[in-house]
Amino acid sequence: xxxxxxxxxxxxxxxxxxxxxxxxxxxxxxxxxxxxxxxxxxxxxxxxxxxxxxxxxxxxxxxxxxxxxxxxxxxxxxxxxxxxxxxxxxxxxxxxxxxxxxxxxxxxxxxxxxxxxxxxxxxxxxxxxxxxxxxxxxxxxxxxxxxxxxxxxxxxxxxxxxxxxxxxxxxxxxxxxxxxxxxxxxxxxxxxxxxxxxxxxxxxxxxxxxxxxxxxxxxxxxxxxxxxxxxxxxxxxxxxxxxxxxxxxxxx
Length: 252
Prior knowledge:
Helix content: 25-40%
Distance between the termini: 29 Å
Strand content: 15-25%
Structural class: alpha/beta
Number of strands: 8
Number of helices: 8
Oligomer: single chain
Largest sheet: 8 strands, mixed
């Protein structure tokens, strides 16, 4: 097991394969274990790097997550890129990991080749999500499948990790609002935006097509791919088609 230090805590990462570095960034309330066998689809073409963001998975725990949550996660990735001396990495972030990936590119474009940002809610926390997330997470905890997933990702203290995630979504919507410190129009790296039109996380909360087309229009060098089928996230519910799309975008 490999770790690096961030804010005095251990952050877990692992590398497989060879080639240009490719980070796969996990979403909210889970860990890098969410990628499971999906990571295997990339390791013949890339040096695949998986990271458990601080407070998740095998990484050190926090009493509470920093309120500027997705920006802080980006800072963790930048720290690792610099530590390892990687040059021009590719990033695939899914769900909350997409926000971290875009923040990395916004803050340190010199370190990034291309970004795929998959299955996220736009440029700020949806108020409808923040207003109901505590109640919805309470119901989700009663589902055995989700409890097993969270335990698989985090271990026996999974509930405190999930509660921290629930809390930071609410705090971020109230005090920070935007996921990004810079406008998406300032992105100077190629970006592929992806989502599933049937995304069970967001389909009832937002106009997925309009949200993603608006972001693609704003980003100078952006492409958009909307999968007609599949749930949340598109990267895993359209796993093989997504991997082929990703490799084409990265020029493999």
